[in-house]
Design brief:
Layout (H helix, E strand, L loop, with lengths): L1 H8 L6 H7 L9 E9 L5 E6 L2 E6 L10 E8 L15 E7 L5 E8 L6 E7 L4 E6 L3 E4 L2 E9 L3 E15 L4 E16 L5 E15 L4 E15 L4 E4 L2 E8 L3 E16 L3 E10 L2 E5 L5 E6 L1 H6 L1 E11 L16 E4 L9 E15 L2 H9 L1
Parallel strand pairs: 2-6, 2-8, 3-7, 3-9, 8-10, 9-11, 10-11, 11-12, 12-13, 13-14, 14-15, 14-16, 15-17, 16-17, 17-18, 17-19, 18-20, 19-23, 20-23, 21-23
Antiparallel strand pairs: 1-4, 4-7, 5-6, 21-22
């Protein structure tokens, strides 16, 4: 062991000056702990939180908490930098915590006494808890798998690997970001003004996302019924599965790639449409009559199994659709194609009366490569 350690340290080519100067960075003073609370609660407790500081909520490691009932709240003063414990009279923030006798209901009230202080609240709770939080600051929640999650915040909301049967996420002046997996029965997310919604991998029964002028983006969406709506934001929806409804009330750009299921797209005002579809099940309708440009690529399997009907200002077929050119009208404003395996069950109806539409085919590997780029 000592030989291996010696070899690692004495290896030539190591920038000793850089290594030496990086060591003090590891020795920075920790934020001052101004309050610490520990208790045991029911593994599926209902926790109500009111906060005006940045609050992070995470679960304990199951190896460190075998009974899954530990509950802890820590308040840090990041503006002080010295871990000296603090005094009761000079605390810049306080947490008032009430736990009922059955340990099933917990109320937490976090108050910042100094508006200029940089306060952080770290909460560790059982991973099956339900959470209701109202905050005038930002909120971060990770690795909690309960029944109910209600988050109303004035700033940013960050979710990471969470699962709840019912989720309501709303922010007044911040963005909503969900990393890794967002799993839920019913999911509702909304933002105001130009604040965005950015989702990773979403799995659930129903989801509704709405913004005013903020963008909405997904990495993948395996939701039985999903609904995306914006006024003037852009919609970038990747890997849409099952059934989806997409609505742009005012000027907006819609980009949908990797669609496998059925979709309803409604563009009520001007914008641009870009769609790459891999599989259509049932009836899909795209109505963007006031859009300026539209580009639609479908897979070979859609051409074989779906009846396609298009009405546009001017339709252009690329080389990959030469065999279907018979379905294009002489004035290039209509296109019809009957899938041999459709039997009238699968339909794709598109209308962009004021926009020129370019149509072509794309394979599944090509669509995957485009998503990675």
């Amino acid at each position: 062991m000592f030989k291996l350690l010696f070899r690692a340290v004495a290896r030539p080519g190591v920038n000793w000056k850089k290594l030496h100067t990086s060591i003090p960075a590891l020795c920075k003073p920790k934020p001052r702990v101004i309050q610490n609370f520990k208790d045991n609660v029911h593994p599926s407790a209902h926790i109500k939180i009111k906060s005006n500081v940045f609050t992070t909520i995470d679960s304990f490691s199951i190896h460190a908490n075998l009974n899954c009932d530990d509950f802890q709240v820590n308040l840090f003063d990041k503006s002080s930098g010295a871990d000296d414990g603090g005094c009761e009279e000079d605390r810049k923030a306080e947490a008032f915590i009430c736990v009922d006798d059955q340990k099933e209901n917990v109320e937490v009230n976090i108050q910042k006494n100094d508006e200029n202080a940089d306060i952080l609240c770290e909460m560790h709770i059982p991973h099956n808890c339900s959470i209701i939080i109202n905050s005038t600051d930002s909120v971060s929640i990770a690795r909690i798998f309960g029944n109910i999650l209600t988050v109303r915040a004035e700033k940013n909301i960050m979710l990471r690997t969470v699962r709840f049967q019912n989720m309501l996420i709303s922010t007044e002046c911040g963005t909503v970001t969900a990393e890794h997996v967002l799993l839920g029965g019913v999911i509702k997310i909304d933002t105001k003004d130009s604040n965005c919604i950015s989702l990773g991998n979403v799995i659930g029964a129903k989801m509704f996302c709405k913004t005013d002028a903020g963008n909405i983006s997904t990495k993948s969406c395996f939701v039985e019924e999903s609904n995306f709506e914006t006024n003037t934001g852009n919609l970038t929806l990747n890997n849409l599965h099952k059934s989806a409804k997409v609505t742009a009330n005012k000027k907006s750009n819609i980009d949908i790639r990797g669609l496998r299921g059925r979709v309803q797209v409604l563009g009520k005002s001007t914008g641009n449409l870009n769609m790459h579809m891999s599989k259509i099940i049932g009836e899909s309708c795209i109505n963007c009559d006031q859009f300026k440009n539209a580009t639609v690529f479908v897979s070979d399997s859609i051409l074989k199994s779906v009846d396609i009907s298009v009405v546009s200002d001017c339709i252009t077929l690329d080389e990959s659709l030469e065999k279907q050119s018979k379905g294009l009208s002489s004035d290039k404003k209509k296109f019809d194609s009957k899938g041999k395996k459709s039997k009238g069950k699968n339909k794709l109806i598109m209308s962009t009366k004021q926009a020129a539409m370019k149509m072509g085919t794309i394979s599944w590997p090509e669509s995957i490569l485009e998503l990675k780029c």
